[in-house]
Amino acid sequence: MAALADVSISTASKALNGSGRMSEETRERVKKVALEVGFRPNALARGLITKRSFTIGLLTNDTYGRFTLPVMAGISEELVGHGVSVFLCAIEDDPERARVHVDAMLDKSVDGIIASGKRLDRQLPVDLSGLPVPVVYAFTKGAADGVTLRSDDEQGARLAARCLIDAGCQRIVHVTGPKTFQSVRERADAYRTAIDGPPEVLHGIWAEAWGHEAVAQLWDRGGEKPDGIFCGNDQIARGVVDGLRERGVRVPEDVAVVGFDNWEIVAAQTRPPLTTVDMNLRTLGREAGRLILAMSEGREVQSGIRKLPCSLVVRQSCRGAEAPA
Amino acid sequence: MAALADVSISTASKALNGSGRMSEETRERVKKVALEVGFRPNALARGLITKRSFTIGLLTNDTYGRFTLPVMAGISEELVGHGVSVFLCAIEDDPERARVHVDAMLDKSVDGIIASGKRLDRQLPVDLSGLPVPVVYAFTKGAADGVTLRSDDEQGARLAARCLIDAGCQRIVHVTGPKTFQSVRERADAYRTAIDGPPEVLHGIWAEAWGHEAVAQLWDRGGEKPDGIFCGNDQIARGVVDGLRERGVRVPEDVAVVGFDNWEIVAAQTRPPLTTVDMNLRTLGREAGRLILAMSEGREVQSGIRKLPCSLVVRQSCRGAEAPA
DNA sequence: TGTCGATGAGAAAACCTTTTCTCTTAGACC
DNA sequence: GGTCTAAGAGAAAAGGTTTTCTCATCGACA
Question: Does A43 touch chain B (CB under 8 A)?
Answer without folding.
Answer: yes
